[in-house]
Design goal:
Helices cover 53% and strands 0% of the residues. It contains one helix and no strands. The protein is elongated. It starts with a helix and ends in a 22-residue tail after the last helix. Keywords: Membrane, Transmembrane, Transmembrane helix. It holds the Pfam family MaAIMP_sms. InterPro entries: MaAIMP_sms.
Length: 51
Amino acid sequence: MSGSAVALMVVSMVVIWGGLVASIVFLARRPEREDLPEGGEDEHVVVPPHR
């Protein structure tokens, strides 16, 4: 491998693994909220019909 190929590989590995580490740290510091109600959709919201 040439030097530029190795440099590009190292940069891409740092971006991929760095994003993974950043995601893990973010989720560890701010886990999923527990204070939200159950369910995924609001039943009281009326959507106007599409014209």
